[in-house]
């Protein structure tokens, strides 16, 4: 099949590349000229495990191309995917200007039947708006389909190649057939392609992300209770997670959810609910808990130093919003950095993949370290903000000798409380006893 993907960011690049893996020809289009130049030259623009290899292979096989010209990208395409940003607008709802802008443009250049698929996360009713934007200038045949993306950054290639499910919102039999054929190679193990109407499909994505965010905020509140009641959140997590109805995943407390999706999607669903005169009370609480949790570790750090961080220097491990990505959008580490700097502290940070993006956003507000141990030199304490695997079994002897004081604030509960005390550290984590 011939496919166009509009928007070549985290979702668009993975989508375009993975579709070429099953033999499709894909042209990815982006308005960011420098991105398109890099990609066309075979240089990948995001860090996503496993992506570069298939990206290079499919460029070589001439199945994967990049352009800045929408017209060129869609010329032969049977299916056009929109993987465009849907950031929060001024009112907190999803801003559809990118999606509707491209829909408007498509209306002016479409020739003949095509399926326009919305992969961006968009509020209920967007398929109708896209349809109307196209219809302003085009009266030929086309279908607009909702096909929300559920990939997780860090494991995006696996998620895309072997999805738990594919959700497709359309009532058009013609579009259904094309989408079925396209996804058939990705669901050979029997995972479902679930067809439904567009509105249900659009809401499914928000419901999924909001539910996951709810799980995180719930566990963060349980962690708060553990700290006050002398319980251990790790034990509680294991105790509840072995119940099939609850499940083991997404039960880890921490320093709040971040990333480019959960915060904006929770906010957008609250807004969409308000628009239909429904107050989504649970989600409002989820947001509130998350806002507090993001600063919880900072409060502990301040309390440890009697509210005086002036002149303190911290090593910070982890800038990305989660491991295995270079994405720092809404990363909890950024909130911690901001708050510590405002209190007079300085920071030396290390992250295996996200330093370039952090430099772009933070500039010289902090120092950057080429490896985790260099960041520790002369630091008053180590703060852990992202659970990269390489932080899980560090060289504690080096940490001990490099830090000025043997203190670790761990926002990700990487170490066993029972071991870390024996190693001579003070250890403050989330929802577990403080080791002094
Ligand atoms: N990142 C994720 O993990 C994830 C997962 C599932 C769904 N989503 C959703 O997918 C959508 C895209 O997210 P993302 O993280 O890939 O965003 P992104 O910011 O990484 O990428 C968007 C790309 O679109 C390009 N773009 C903007 N306007 C354009 C235009 N007019 N024509 C062509 N390209 C244009 C930008 O230059 C950018 O490269 C969002 O709605 C998001 O909520 C994201």
Strand line-up across the major sheet: 3-2-1-4-5-6
Shape: globular
Low-confidence stretches: none
Query: Strand fraction band?
Result: 5-15%
Number of strands: 14
The span between the termini is: 62 Å
Mean pLDDT: 97
Structural class: alpha/beta
What is the percent of helical residues? 40-55%
What compounds are bound to the protein?
nicotinamide-adenine-dinucleotide
- Count of helical segments? 16
Major β-sheet profile: 6 strands, parallel
C-alpha-based Rg, rounded: 23 Å
What sequence of helices (H) and strands (E) makes up the elements? EHEHHEHEHEHEHEHEHHHHEHEHEEHEHE
From the structure above, extract its key features.
single chain, 436 residues, 13% strand, six-stranded parallel β-sheet
Topology record:
Layout (H helix, E strand, L loop, with lengths): L1 E5 L3 H12 L3 E5 L3 H8 L10 H10 L3 E4 L2 H5 L4 E4 L14 H13 L5 E4 L7 H10 L7 E4 L9 H6 L4 E4 L3 H11 L9 E4 L1 H32 L3 H9 L20 H14 L5 H24 L8 E5 L14 H11 L3 E5 L4 H8 L4 E2 L12 E4 L11 H7 L4 E4 L6 H6 L3 E3 L8
Helix pairs in contact: 1-3, 5-6, 9-11, 9-12, 11-12, 12-13
The structure holds nicotinamide-adenine-dinucleotide.
The site of nicotinamide-adenine-dinucleotide has 26 residues, from helix 1 and helix 5.
């Amino acid at each position: 099949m011939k496919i166009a993907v509009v928007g070549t960011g985290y979702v668009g690049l993975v989508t375009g590349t993975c579709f070429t893996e099953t033999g499709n020809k894909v042209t990815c289009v982006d308005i960011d000229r420098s991105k398109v130049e890099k990609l066309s030259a075979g240089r990948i623009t995001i860090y996503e495990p496993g992506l570069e290899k298939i990206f290079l292979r499919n460029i070589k096989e001439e199945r994967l191309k990049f352009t800045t010209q929408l017209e060129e990208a869609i010329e032969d395409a049977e299916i056009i995917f929109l993987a465009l940003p849907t950031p929060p607008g001024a009112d907190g709802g999803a801003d559809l200007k990118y999606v509707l802008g491209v829909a408007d443009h498509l209306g002016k250049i479409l020739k003949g039947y095509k399926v326009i698929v919305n992969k961006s996360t968009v509020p209920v009713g967007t398929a109708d708006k896209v349809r109307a934007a196209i219809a302003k200038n085009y009266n030929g045949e086309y279908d607009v389909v909702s096909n929300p993306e559920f990939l997780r950054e860090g494991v995006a290639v696996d998620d895309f190649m072997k999805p738990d499910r594919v959700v497709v919102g359309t009532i058009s039999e013609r579009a259904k057939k094309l989408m079925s054929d396209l996804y058939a190679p990705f669901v050979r193990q029997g995972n479902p392609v679930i067809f439904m109407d567009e509105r249900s499909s659009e809401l499914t994505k928000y419901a999924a992300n909001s539910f996951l965010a709810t799980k995180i905020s719930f566990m963060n509140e349980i962690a708060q209770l553990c700290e006050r009641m002398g319980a251990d959140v790790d034990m509680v997590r294991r105790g509840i997670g072995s119940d099939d109805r609850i499940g083991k995943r997404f039960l880890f407390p921490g320093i709040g959810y971040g990333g480019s999706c959960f915060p904006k999607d929770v906010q957008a669903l609250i807004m969409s609910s308000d628009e239909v005169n429904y107050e989504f009370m649970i989600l409002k609480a989820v947001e509130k808990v998350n806002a507090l949790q993001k600063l919880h570790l900072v409060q502990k750090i301040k309390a440890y130093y009697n509210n005086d961080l002036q002149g303190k220097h911290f090593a910070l491990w982890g800038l990305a919003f989660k491991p295995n990505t270079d994405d720092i959008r809404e990363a909890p580490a950024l909130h911690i950095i901001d708050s510590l700097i405002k209190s007079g502290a300085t920071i030396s940070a290390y992250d295996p993949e996200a330093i370039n993006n952090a430099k772009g956003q933070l500039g010289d507000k902090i120092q950057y370290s080429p490896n985790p141990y260099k960041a520790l030199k002369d630091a008053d304490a180590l703060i852990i903000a992202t659970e990269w695997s390489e932080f899980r079994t560090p060289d504690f002897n080096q940490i001990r000798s490099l830090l000025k004081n043997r203190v670790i604030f761990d926002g990700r509960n990487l170490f066993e409380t029972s071991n870390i005390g024996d190693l001579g550290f003070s250890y403050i984590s989330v929802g577990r006893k403080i080791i002094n």
